[in-house]
């Protein structure tokens, strides 16, 4: 098996993937890189002798990452950010060959990252990203080995505490704000929007007392109605372009910490979204409606707020199958 240069006219792949007595395959390519990629593909896929071990994939992890980015990642909303993290991950792992990536080797990587002080949630996200590289390449026919992380369990995380502001804290926060800061916070509390969605909101996305958030975290648009009064407040004198030109994340975060210093770590301004959802359920809102308002792709995400419903547990008494059958006790 070999790749032969053709005196400046490209390269010839000349292989017999099934051995000396097997079928000979020859194909010409303009570049050596294309020829090498074809040779690897032939070796990995054209051996029909299932009892003979197929050659291990000798490509480096970085090569697989670049292949993933070329065929899939560059089309993702956060593709550049993701590929950057994958490259850092590969460097941290020593840029192993594909055949060297196993559950055991990734377990060693997790131990290393934990020792460096990284949170388990961050390491689980690393596992998701690397697993997605193999899943995509397998689906597209660019990787022919077994998925090395398939069925590997993630680090189990404790249930995250859900913080929210009380009515008194909400009033105190609003009293400390003015201008765009006040309007933006009100909109978060009225629609459950993420701070980043409100920051980039434009005038043309608020029509008829409805706010439409575009290009959201899950790449879906969603529309949420607001009151006539709030609509007038946030659009007053704004003809086009961004609704809130003078927002300061750190200022809002510091005001929230002043009125609610004991919120769970890491929630900060995101607590406005939790506050909307929590009060929505406490006031009798429907969990399915909340899912649509928040833009959750799965009801399981929204169920984190279900316990705020005033009759959440009482429904077990009201609607269990023994109701109406007491005479059989």
From TrEMBL:
Key words, A-Z: DNA integration, DNA recombination
Keyword Hydrolase: no
CDD domains in the record: INT_Rci_Hp1_C (cd00796)
Keyword Zinc-finger part of the UniProt annotation: no
Classification via InterPro entries: DNA_brk_join_enz (IPR011010), Int_N (IPR057084), Integrase-like_cat_sf (IPR013762), Integrase_catalytic (IPR002104), Tyrosine_recombinase_XerCD (IPR050090)
Span of the signal peptide: none
Pfam families attached to this UniProt entry: Int_N, Phage_integrase
Superkingdom of the source species: Bacteria
GO BP term, example: DNA integration
SUPFAM superfamilies: DNA breaking-rejoining enzymes
One GO molecular-function entry: DNA binding
Ranges of residues in domain Tyr recombinase: 160-318
PANTHER family hit by this protein: FELS-2 PROPHAGE PROTEIN, PHAGE INTEGRASE-RELATED
Name of the protein in its database record: Phage integrase
Organism encoding this protein: Candidatus Sodalis pierantonii str. SOPE
Lineage of source species: Bacteria, Pseudomonadati, Pseudomonadota, Gammaproteobacteria, Enterobacterales
């Amino acid at each position: 098996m070999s790749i032969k240069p053709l005196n400046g006219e490209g390269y010839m792949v000349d292989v017999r993937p099934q051995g000396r007595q097997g079928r000979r395959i020859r194909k010409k390519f303009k570049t050596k890189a294309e020829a090498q990629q074809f040779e690897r593909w032939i070796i990995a896929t054209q051996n029909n002798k299932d009892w003979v071990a197929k050659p291990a994939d000798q490509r480096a992890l970085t090569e697989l990452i670049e292949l993933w980015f070329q065929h899939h990642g560059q089309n993702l909303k956060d593709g550049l950010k993701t590929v950057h993290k994958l490259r850092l991950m590969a460097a941290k792992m020593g840029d192993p060959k594909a055949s060297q990536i196993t559950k055991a080797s990734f377990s060693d990587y997790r131990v290393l990252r934990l020792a460096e002080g990284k949170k388990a949630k961050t390491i689980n996200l690393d596992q998701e990203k690397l697993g997605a590289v193999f899943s995509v390449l397998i689906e597209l026919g660019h990787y022919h080995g077994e998925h090395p992380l398939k069925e590997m369990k993630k680090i189990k995380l404790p249930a995250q505490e859900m913080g929210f502001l009380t009515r008194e804290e909400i009033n105190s926060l609003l009293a400390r704000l003015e201008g765009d800061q006040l309007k933006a916070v009100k909109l978060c509390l009225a629609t459950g929007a993420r701070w980043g969605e409100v920051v980039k909101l434009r005038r043309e996305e608020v029509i008829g007392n409805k706010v439409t958030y575009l290009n959201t975290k899950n790449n879906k648009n969603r529309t949420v109605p607001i009151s006539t009064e709030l609509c007038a407040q946030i659009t007053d004198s704004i003809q086009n372009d961004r609704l809130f030109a003078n927002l300061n994340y750190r200022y809002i975060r510091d005001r929230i910490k002043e009125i609610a210093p004991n919120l769970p770590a890491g929630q900060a301004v995101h607590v406005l979204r939790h506050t909307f959802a929590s009060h929505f359920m406490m006031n009798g809102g429907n969990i399915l409606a909340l899912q649509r308002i928040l833009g959750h792709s799965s009801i399981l995400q929204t169920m984190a707020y279900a316990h705020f419903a005033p009759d959440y547990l009482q429904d077990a008494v009201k609607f269990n199958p023994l109701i109406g059958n007491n005479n059989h006790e």
